[in-house]
Design goal:
This protein has one domain. It is 79% helix and 0% strand. It is built from 9 helices and no strands.
């Protein structure tokens, strides 16, 4: 759709800059702008799916307002949440190696405990992210729904949200990542990444609509 064309082109150009050997300052600026355009793409996609094409201007959104700010802040909150989970996981390693006598054979077996703890931490983290992700399509259509409401809305659909938000995207991104290891495939990977991003956002929109209508009856 035309509403997504220009934001997608801008995002692709900025993504290309990120992969060039330019100065760290330029890369930093392009990364920030890429994140901004990714937010615009997400908001636009959600609105088209949930409210119809008339809910956005012909060539999409390029003005940054409260809606986009709230949307971006929720994304940042999840990023900090993942960083916190990573900190806990790393701390479990540090604690294990500082307490255990690694020269003792029985203790060596306990070195696997941090691996188990890390696995559990990230499974729980991804489960939480799945539960709260319906806040994003709701924010995009100005419903002002928070993480708390999304948590309540998904209480009967926890497995579905994990599959939609975590498992399914991982299954798609792994082949794209492996393709990127092949020389001279950067352009193909960039296009596939953009298509995949929009597709995943659209799936989240459809999931939100289905669960919202089922749970709220409207």
């Amino acid at each position: 759709m035309k509403a997504l064309l220009l934001p997608l082109v801008a995002y692709a150009l900025l993504d290309a800059i990120d992969h060039m050997e330019t100065g760290s300052f330029i890369i930093g600026i392009s990364s920030v702008l890429s994140s901004a355009f990714a937010t615009i793409i997400a908001v636009t996609t959600h609105r088209i799916i949930l409210l119809g094409p008339d809910s956005v201007s012909k060539w999409g959104f390029f003005n940054w307002g409260v809606r986009e700010t709230v949307f971006a802040l929720h994304i940042i909150a999840l990023i900090f949440f993942l960083f916190f989970c990573g900190f806990i996981a790393k701390s479990s390693y540090t604690a294990t190696f500082s307490i255990l006598d690694l020269n003792s054979v029985p203790w060596k077996l306990l070195v696997y405990i941090p691996l188990i703890i890390t696995f559990v931490i990230y499974v729980v983290a991804f489960w939480v992210i799945g539960r709260v992700s319906l806040a994003f399509p709701a924010i995009a259509i100005n419903q002002g729904v928070s993480f708390r409401y999304s948590w309540k809305l998904t209480r009967k659909h926890q497995l579905l949200m994990f599959l939609v938000v975590i498992a399914f995207p991982v299954c798609i991104w792994i082949p794209i990542y492996l393709l990127g290891k092949i020389p001279y495939t950067a352009s193909v990977v960039s296009v596939l990444s953009l298509i995949t991003m929009v597709f995943e956002i659209a799936i989240l929109s459809v999931t939100y609509k289905a669960i919202y209508e089922l749970e709220d009856g409207s």
